[in-house]
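hey m, so remember when u said the tokens were messed up on ur end? i reran from scratch. heres the input so u can diff it against urs
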Amino acid sequence: MPSQAVEPLTTLVSAFSRRYPGVSVAIRAAFTSRDVIDMVRTGAVELGLLASAGPVSDKEVVSHALGRQRFVLVVPADGPFAGRTAVECRELAGQRLIVGQPGTGMRAYVDALREQGVEFTVAAETEHRVSLMPLVLAGVGLAVVADSWRDLARRLGARVLDIEPESTLDIALVSRRGGLSPAATAFVEAATSAAES
């Protein structure tokens, strides 16, 4: 999934590549947790990296928990909430938000806010997570994203605020049931070791 392709994918592939420099990793795109699970379940890929609002069910795939990421708010340098490091979720009322497509964790989060009576304007809905930062920096709106975007957003000149109360996504590496190739088995081992350290 796009946010996890920022992090922890970078850390996982880096750890694996150091251990197994002769093995190439092929990365494919999926936009929702369901897409990832379906790709793994059908054998289109051996492993999938995803985020979900709760632990992944082991009914269809085997799940290897890698940790959690909290939701944060990305705002342009000259945007609202100046001088702040955190914002209450209710303060998103009246703001213009850039949201992901249905089925993503960030979309589920903002939809839940709306159900709780926090009214905001959807400035843009995008499947292309790569467009999030340019849209925020151009002043189109603010974006609720996973914490994996924090470092990149700051390097690009955006401000990142924690959203209170804290809400998180569970990050997991999933594999199909049955045997895995030696490379996929080694990747799972490297990923779970990296997550523990």
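this time it looks ok to me. The domain at 69-168 is CATH 3.40.190.10 (D-Maltodextrin-Binding Protein; domain 2). if urs says something different then somethings off w ur setup not the seq
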